[in-house]
Specification:
Structural class: alpha/beta
Number of helices: 10
Low-confidence stretches: none
Mean pLDDT: 97
Strand order of the largest sheet: 13-12-11-10-5-4-3-14
CATH architecture: Alpha-Beta Barrel
Radius of gyration: 19 Å
Order of helices and strands: EEEHEHEEEEEHEHHEHEHEHEHH
Helix content: 25-40%
Largest sheet: 8 strands, parallel
CATH superfamily: Aldolase class I
Number of domains: 1
Shape: globular
Strand content: 15-25%
Distance between the termini: 27 Å
CATH class: Alpha Beta
């Protein structure tokens, strides 16, 4: 794992190693979307990972999908995130806030305005979602008009500005995992016949418009983009054109000179190699289910520049130290992943108390 401990520069950030904390929904925000009182402690505990990518954070009321998830579109949100970024910086880490618009993966009971979710097309995902009233079927979303698409781009732009105002070192655009931007990519979730549907170029258009707006607002060096090729989260299927869609997307992102692209790997090794060839800046690759001994394999093979980790970081605030010492790892408690208080959030033991 020698290469894992080599320093790297992401945008303008000088990082001590090639690990990072992947974004993970924890559902512990206040009811108005302000980060909860324990959030600053949670992220600061994990500052030794260097680059921390926050849980998905809604850029608007329409962007909320789940209960108790944080937002970054009001002054209270900014104040709450400022406490988080201050603590992370004091502990020596950096924080990118992930901007996540859930799109159709929502329920009226989970949002401040109690409206249905929005999407490229009025197609329900055929899935259930947790609400204050238990598990509920996700209703058919409302199709966004072209005017509303432009307004949503503006929402992302304002949210990015708010993240920087809150002290974040950058933002990650969530274009993966079945949420709004990914829904535009899917052949089965986007059946539009206008300039945002049909061809690869059209289905990628919204993602590029969002990214350009954010780059203009906060700078390319403060902007990352996450994708999940060939991973049918929330039943979004890019179809046979999927590989070409991602090659085109990465080529377009390359023109914008983003700080990084973050891949949630879905198993298409040829496409991953093509992305590596096409993408000149930092490439983060997260392989679900990989063994601990394989954590540096993609870096050693030149496929990736960084290896973001999820559950290992959740359960081990001192993961970096444990990995260097080959020390045993805490087991994640899946029962406390979402919602609740300090248990399973900030009470995982470190090697040194």
């Amino acid at each position: 794992m020698t290469n894992l401990w080599n320093p790297i520069t992401i945008g303008k950030l000088n990082l001590p190693h090639r690990l990072a904390m992947a974004p993970m929904t924890r559902s512990r925000a206040l009811s108005d979307g302000t980060p909860g009182s324990l959030s600053a402690e949670y992220y600061a505990q994990r500052a030794s990972l260097g680059l921390l990518i926050s849980e998905g954070t809604q850029p608007s009321e329409d962007g909320q999908g789940y209960t108790m998830t944080p937002g970054i579109y009001t002054e209270k949100h900014i104040e709450g995130w400022r406490k988080v970024t201050d603590e992370v910086h004091a502990a020596g880490g950096y924080l990118f806030i992930q901007l996540m618009h859930a799109g159709r993966m929502s329920h009226p009971d989970n949002t401040p305005h109690h409206r249905k979710g929005v999407a490229p097309s009025a197609i329900a995902p055929g899935a259930e979602i947790f609400t204050p009233n238990g598990m509920m079927e996700i209703p058919v979303p409302r199709e966004l008009s072209q005017t509303e698409i432009k307004e949503t781009v503006e929402d992302f732009k304002k949210a990015a500005a708010s993240a920087i105002k809150a002290g974040a070192d950058g933002v990650e655009i969530h274009g993966a995992n079945g949420y709004l931007i990914h829904q535009f990519f899917g052949e089965n979730s986007n059946i539009r016949t206008d300039e945002y549907g049909g061809s690869v170029e059209n289905r990628v258009r919204f993602a590029i418009e969002v990214t350009k707006a954010i780059v203009e607002e906060v700078g390319a060096e403060r902007t990352g983009f996450r994708i999940s090729p060939n991973a049918p989260f929330s039943k979004v299927d890019e179809g046979q054109s999927g590989p070409d869609l991602y090659r085109y997307l990465v080529e377009e992102l390359k023109k914008l000179n983003l700080a990084y692209v973050h891949v949630m790997h879905g198993g298409d090794e040829e496409l991953l190699r093509d992305i590596r060839t096409l993408w000149p800046n930092a490439l983060l690759v997260n392989r679900p289910g990989r063994a601990l001994e394989d954590i540096a394999t993609d870096i050693d093979n030149g496929i990736a520049d960084m290896a973001p980790i999820g559950a290992w970081a959740l359960a081990n605030p001192d993961f970096v130290e444990r990995l260097k010492l080959n020390a045993p790892l805490n087991e994640p408690d899946k029962g406390t992943f979402f919602g609740g208080g300090s248990q399973g959030y900030v009470d995982y033991p470190a090697l040194k108390k």
